[in-house]
Amino acid sequence: MNIRVLKKLSFLLLGFAFFSCSSDYLELKPQAAENSAAFYLTQAHADQAVIAAYSQFNNISIWGTDIMQRLGDIPSDDAEAGGEDITDVPSLQEYGRLTNLATDGIVNDVFGTLYRAIYFSNIAIDEIPGIVETDPDADPKILNRRVAEVKFLRALNYFYLTMIYGGVPYVDHVLGGDEFQQPRADIKTIYELIESDLKDAIEILPERSGLGDELGRASKGAAKALLGRLYQFESSYADTYGGKDDRFDGMTDRWAESLKYSEEVIKSGEYELIGINGETYETWRGTETNGYRYIFTSDSDNNKEGVFEIQCVQEGLGYGPARGNALAQWSCSRYYYDEEGQPTTTGMWGFGIPTQALWDSFEEGDPRLKASMVREGGGDLMQTTGNAWVPYCFESCITNIYGTKWEASYEEFKAWGSTWHGAPQNLRLIRISEVYLNAAEAALMLGNNAKALQYINKVRERARMCGDTGIPADLTSVSMEDIINERRVEFSSEGKRYYDLVRWGIAAEKLNATPTADDYPREFIVGKNEFHPLPEREITMSNGVLEQYPGWQ
Amino acid sequence: MQHELKFGDNTNLNVQLVEDLYGIDEVVVTGYGVQKKSDLTGAVSSVSAEKLNSVPIPNVEQALQGMAAGVNIIPKSGKPGEEADIQIRGISSINGTKPLVIIDGVSGSLMSLNPSDIASIEVLKDASSAAIYGATGGNGVILVTTKKGSAGKMRISANVYRGIENPVNTVDMMNSQEYMEVVEELEARKSTPRNYDRDTLATYDWQDMIFEKAISESYDISISGGNEVSTYLFSTSLNKQQGIVKNTDYQRFTIRMNSEHKVNKFITFDEKITFVNSQTEGFDQWYWHNFYNNPIVDVISADPTVTAYDEDGVWTESPFNVGNPIVKLDMKDKINKNNEFAGNFGLKVHLLKGLDFNSRITGKFGLNDAKEYQAIYQASPTDFNNQDKLIQNMNKSLSYNFQNYINYQTTIAERHNISVMVGMEASKWWGYDISGTRVDMASPNPDMLYLKMSTNGESDIQNVTGGAYNGANQAYFGRLNYDYLGRYLLTVNVRRDGSSSFGPNFRWGTFPSFSVGWKFAEEDFMQDLTFLSTGKLRFGYGQTGSNAKGGFPFLSTVENLETFRYTVDGVSTQVGTAPNQISNPSLHWESVNMSNLGLDMTFFDNRISLSADIFDKVNEGMILEKETSSIAGTYNGDNPEVNFGSISNKGYEITMGARKNSGELTGSFDLNFSGVKNEVLSLAVDSMQSGAVHNVQPTNMTLVGAPVAQFYGWQLEGMFSENDPTEKVGSRTFITNQPQIVNEDGSITYAQPNAKPGDARFKDVDGDGKITNDDKVLLGSPLPKLTFGFSLNLQYKGFDFVAFFNGTYGNKIMNGSKQYLYNPVGYQNRGAGFADRYRDEVVKDGVVVVNENHDTDIYRLSADTYTKMSNFFVEDGSFLRLRNVSLGYTFPGTLTKKIGIEKLRIYGGGKNLFTLTKYTGLNPEIGGNDILNMGVDIGLYPVTSMVYFGANITF
Fold first, then answer.
1. Which range among A299-308, B38-47, B302-311, B738-747 shows the weakest confidence by mean pLDDT?
2. Nearest chain A CA: its distance from B932 CA (Å)
3. Residues B379, B381, B386, B388: is their CA dihedral positive or negative?
């Protein structure tokens, strides 16, 4: 072999040598994404992990239009599906008729969103405690508080899951790849987790006044209010279904605890019924907006009425991830009359419209009625282009009533383009008036009528002070019927009615007596319709480990 | 094999140079080398350069359409510049069917090639031929070789064509009178009739208003030549295609410089430097493949009683609040520019007789640049934009590929021909993007549209964002070709691939293959069969694979997505961080096992040719984002990528040809057809449902034991009529002759309690008296039983003629456009067929506003019928299309040479002039869907027909 050959050979060897020794050639670092192993190390990381758990509230269409209205109001006797007519969004109309199916995408979207929030909470609960070891500058108090916040979030999400679906899979840690198929746990088992999470949160979370500017975070008051509500549900379920329906096994009467926690919130001095002294406020609706109406404007976001609010802001993002409130577009009047008397579209859709029965449940002269809805012939005006006030048009409104609670001003509503957008008012998930009524209900159930009367009258007093009719007057005695009706008128269009009817056990009685406005004789089937179906997709994914309740199978 | 590389003691070997063996036409590129076509033992289809330039071809994908058996090319739509779906030998993965495209040895994109630059295209279809590309060859490999210059005098060659395009067809819609009747029917509940003089109302044809004639043109020129030492080819091309819809034009500009230099007796150096600029306009691709916001859907269903613009050129408003579809087409001001600069440098060192060392390094630089301006406008109270916005994106990508291999070729004892190749390859890619948004621009003047010209301060909505990506592959490979007497052939391949997308323990995969061939026509005992010119029997078996789709799915990572933010103070949002994808540390390569049996024969002095293949291809460990239960926290996030599932494709391919090479009239006829039987062998879940056209969902079902993506839904059979018996219960009336359940209390629950005359009857398949999901059945397959193409080429004196057809047989289409053509909701216009729907008379204010129509089989305006997936939507999708027909004339050389032209050919013809199909939608070729919802037509950008003229000139 001559030199020349060797020279040429060296070419070859050079080429091969170049790569054969670089064993780490394929070891790359991901770009623009952090390796989890390098995260959850500092207090700032803890903050971000917690924000991610809150962020699932951003899916406002889930919380606003779906959980509150589609699943909470429309199947009840308070609201109709609405829209253009009874063929508009067929799957939505199904909810009004109680003929909705497990295959409907909405039950899946809601389920998925709530479990994603639980997943993010679980990560934070698992990871944050270790940060004291890795970040010497971290304040252990803040870290503890962050864990308490996500425990509140996990509890809240589970509370809604059980309210909507009944028993659901019990997931209290980040699931491994072989744990994705989980059976349904009893409601009571989930309730125990919620209870312990909320008690942990109550220990650590600051009161509302300790939140500083960050009023959107979970507070001690919010955790107590939710715990009071949990005990209320458990007690109602026990009273209504105990011994009769094994879905509710293990439920016991806990009215005393419900009362205790609700009263602690009321007595904390952190909250007040806005407008109870007859105050008026300047808003886009006018210079003298009454207190009850003011609560639902963006001006009153995070004021003292709110015990826990989902934060809504307008940011020009698309509808899906938008941090705006979708209920304005979804639920408000679909048409108005222009100057020539022609029906003209408002850009809103008119879904979830109030029923005549809801309208009738208000005492004549109750200022909350006018602050909640309008009806044909009422001569009411709405704000539209250029802040002009124009008459509502009920052309395609099957009940001839539109809800107005979630209306936003034209300025707020039009801000981000012409389609699919959100308004800035927060979603009021727990208001102080609800805590009063929770306390009233618990007191009544405990036989303490005087206390019940005191709390219900407080709510009525605020309503009365928002008008000049003297209505609603103080009650002189209180019955369960009074509580039921007070909740109905105080929280219309706030997504509570259906869940309430179920826990009181009067859903069949109320709903089967009232067909939908298009005369569909809906049937609430006892043993089935207490809960919405689990998403069909989840049943499939679980390979049969997760099962539907009877009636949905 | 290592042993045979020791070439020191080769003196007793009879070595022949590779170049000496090969005739020019018979050589095919096989990946890291070339092979005589007659020695191939794998399944390879070739398309030669002549076929590419005889008719106008805007891009190489279209050139391949219908040309090769088993290669199915489905255009995604008629929108200029859109890629096609390419399927080679069926659907072997739910992830997609995109084959590996290798251009001059390195992976690239067919869309960015100037078709005139191409010397040849080979499609490697079976495992034994594609396995040299191992893990990336699972969907087949398309090899493109570009032209080189040749020694001799300088050649200048130019091609030009120009054509006029029109939509192949349009959809018949209702006229204004019929439309108004639907409006009245929708509003039957309201008391007053619409105040229009219906009879005199004009009908405006929106498709006619929006679709415009489009010009398609292409110019290219190449200069080539060289001497014994260096050869060169320089080319440039410009291809411009107007869209038939406003703001959808496409343009591609290319430059190429190929050259080759013999440095000395032993060393050859070559380079290929290319620059490609392409531009698209208007809406991004996904808009055109989405039911919502799809401009085509909006155009077709627009209100026919109004025109696009009034006399003053102002957008009109529909009295029924149906959007004016031209508004968004007018207002979509977006331009997307793609620049790619690539250099490909090769070195070949001739070490010893039969032994060559090849090294090739390629680098690519890509810059994608998009600018969109959303201007202020007001078209109607609900269609407006009151804040202008400028969005700019820039995306930079870089990659390199380095490969080295040696070939050794020898013949022992004049009978054993051996050639060996071993090599390695490594590539890396990385890139980043940056995008910025600002509102309230100082001026809409294009010269002022830069981000700094915002009059507004920076805030959350004026955001800047960006991300990055990277990845690397590495491989070692080897090949042995052996033949005995040139008659018994053997090929063995093995490749070991590594990818950065897999965890350290699963990073590498090994992909072996072998194939054997027997040229039986050369056997002595066959010599009596004089009609047989050549004959070869081939068999191969091997493994190829597929990589993960990219990124680091094995690694647990966290991200701070926009959707992870939240406002806790009601004013500003805070950053949230969480995992968006669940990781899977044990993710590994997908593997595709394929066996192939083939027969090649030619008869009568090669005038008749026949090539037949049967194959069996099974994908195992398919990589898929596995849908998981939402309790894992995956909702709205990315599911984990896992290896699961198996799909089998069994099929055949037949290619036949006949040619006449002598006499005044010469010509050829070529036919290819293929059929694939697809079957899902296993899935991680029982079934996967997919597909949605508005409310109609799911449309497709993939389940074990059936082909992928079967259509799935209820069966409609007949219609409820006004003559059906009824029963009154309370305030409600039920039709009684339908499936039902008698309850314990004696009452009856009907399967369709809401049914009214004119509604469809749903078939109660399981006979349980209810219409449930259990009554859904498979409604047919979107996969064709047969795909075919045939062409006729004739030459007579200076004239040449080509006609080329292709088509499919036996596939079904889910005609999603029926969702708006028979829309049960809203004020949009509907298809002409809907005018004959079942309806009752409606009288308002004493005026008959809707006429009764009971004698029909078109269901009434009813959500129950038209919003559920059923056989109503499923249609036969078979078609035969005259893809191209052209007539050319080449002027006699004696004439043209006088004016210095060596060759001048002019031609004219048409593309897509004729289609035979029963399908009622716009176009029977449905592309652009995911595999799981194949064949669902949501109303795509219309395919065009083109009439063209062109010329080829060589100086």
1. B38-47
2. 16
3. negative
- For residue B2, is pLDDT > 60? no
Which tokens belong to B788? 């075919």
Q: Which residues of A touch B629 (CB under 8 A)?
A: 169, 180-182, 538, 541-542, 546
Which domains occur in chain A, in start order?
40-204+517-553 (1.25.40.390), 312-425 (no CATH), 432-512 (1.25.40.900)
Q: Look up residue A338 and give its two tokens.
A: 């222009």
**Nearest beta carbon to residue A112 from set B186, B406, B630:** B630
The whole-angstrom separation of Cα B475 and Cα B143 is 18
Diameter of chain B measured on Cα atoms: 109
The radius of gyration computed from the CA coordinates of chain B, to the nearest angstrom, equals 31
Place of tokens 């709530």: A114
For residue A384, list chain B residues with Cβ-Cβ distance below 8 A. Answer: 381
Which of B126, B43, B23, B13 has the alpha carbon at shortest distance from B419? Answer: B13
Do the Cβ atoms of B121 and B589 come closer than 8 Å? no
Q: Give the list of residues 6+ apart from residue A500 with CB closer than 8 angstroms, or none.
A: A484, A487
Question: What rounded mean pLDDT belongs to chain B?
Answer: 87
The structural domains of chain B, ordered by start, are 15-148 (2.170.130.10), 710-777 (no CATH)
For residue B744, what pLDDT is reported?
82
Find which of B355, B384, B635, B748 to mutate to test the A interface (most A CBs within 10 Å of its CB).
B635
β B740-742/B700-703 pair status? unpaired
* Residue B942 clears pLDDT 80, i.e. is over it: yes
- The Cβ of residue B605 has, within 10 Å, a number of other Cβ atoms equal to 10
Does residue B223 surpass a pLDDT of 90? yes
Q: Are B276 and B357 in contact (CB under 8 A)?
A: no
Burial degree of B720 (CB within 10 A; 0-12, 13-18, 19+): buried
CB within 8 Å of B24: residues ≥ 6 apart: none
CA dist A115 → A160, A168, A172, B634 (Å): 11, 10, 11, 8
Closest approach of B718 to chain A, Cα-based (Å): 22
Q: Are the C-beta atoms of residues A247 and A549 closer than 8 Å to each other?
A: yes
Tokens of B771: 């219409």
Positions of E strands within B485-584: 488-499, 508-518, 532-546, 557-558
**What local confidence, expressed as pLDDT, does residue B681 receive?**
92
Percent of chain A with pLDDT over 70: 92
Name the residue among A18, A49, A315 with its Cβ closest to that of B578. A49
SS3 A249: coil
Q: Dump strand ranges (E) for B49-112.
A: 71-75, 84-88, 100-103, 106-107
B residues 856-885 closer than 8 Å to A (CB): 861-864, 867
